[in-house]
Amino acid sequence: MQIKRGLKMKEYLASLILNSQDQYITYEEFMNAVLYHPSLGYYMKDKPKIGREGDFITTTNVLDIFGSAVCKWFSSKIHEEGPLLPNVCEIGGGNGRFAKAFIDEWNRHCDLPLQYTIIETSPYHRRLQRDLLSDIRGVQILESLDHISEHEGMFFSNELFDALPVRVIEKNGHQLLEVVIGLEAGELVERKVVLENQRIIDFIKESGIKLVNHQRFEIPLAMDDLLRELANKLKKGYMLTIDYGYTNLEWQEEAHRNGSLRGYYQHKMVTNPLLYPGDMDLTTHIHFDRLIDKGKEWGLHFISFLRQDQFLLEAGILQELEDNFDPNPFSERSKRNRAIRSLVMPSGMSGFFHALVQKK
């Protein structure tokens, strides 16, 4: 079945390319197809993506610790800021474990009724979320942000922006080229064409990044579009973004000159994004300076930008260790404490992620 689905996706991509004006599609069009096609796209398929049976793991699925820590952080902000509705909108809720942990923590310690909304494009994940959260009051699961006109409280996302489609460019001498995808003997191949898209040209100018010869660079136009939409819908409150990426200065380091577009297939990194179309997760490192700068332009004030472990420490996660100490190394409390330590050690998973806090 997996091979058959892969062939169907290849046939669909071939039709897109052959029916296009110039016999190629952009990487953005390719990623939209292989990730989000209603029936053939990776995120839309009825199969596990997260965890041991999937292709990747996330820090929000380390027991219930991450959800409870973010809950305590948001609760403290409500008390500090005065009147702020206890509403949370999570964009891309995955299997629902973060939401469950957040809500359970809230119900243990907060008297105010919580409204928790999940925006999830994947039918498979929406089903998992409903199975896990169906008995909890105040939860709604929606397919699109179009169902929300405005929001007060918090927008939360974890590894959302890194999953959005990007355009890919490359510098060749004094010329900027766009890397696109065509067909050769029935196989997907990269081609390079002169860069003409004005939004991409403006993005490069605004970032101030100076590309060197043969450097590849991803342009997240879809990230800009989503950020603007979230900023417009947020009436009052916070936007907490957990993700991995680089600052403009880091993007210019030699180690990143091949770009960051990668695939993850059965927990293995794949450097060729054209392999396993529709059966492989695709991801890029995001542009944090862009999120901050465009956020300011669209009314989101910059509050903090911390490595994930530093954010969790500020959120008071170490209190969990003190409250749950158990000398028995095989107990559930000790297991939980080891998971907490894995999240706050800079050498662990958290060292690769950052938390960006913006406010309106």
Topology at a glance:
Blueprint: H1 2-18, E1 25-26, H2 27-36, H3 65-81, E2 87-91, H4 97-109, E3 115-119, H5 123-133, E4 139-142, E5 151-158, E6 167-172, E7 175-184, E8 187-194, H6 198-207, E9 216-219, H7 221-233, E10 234-243, E11 245-246, H8 248-251, E12 262-265, E13 268-270, E14 281-283, E15 286-287, H9 288-297, E16 301-307, H10 308-314, H11 318-323, H12 332-344, E17 354-359
Parallel strand pairs: 2-3, 2-5, 3-4, 5-10, 11-15
Antiparallel strand pairs: 1-7, 6-7, 6-9, 7-8, 10-17, 12-13, 12-14, 16-17
Helix pairs in contact: 3-4, 7-9
Main traits of this protein?
globular, single chain, 7-stranded mixed beta sheet, 12 helices, Rossmann fold, 360 residues, alpha/beta
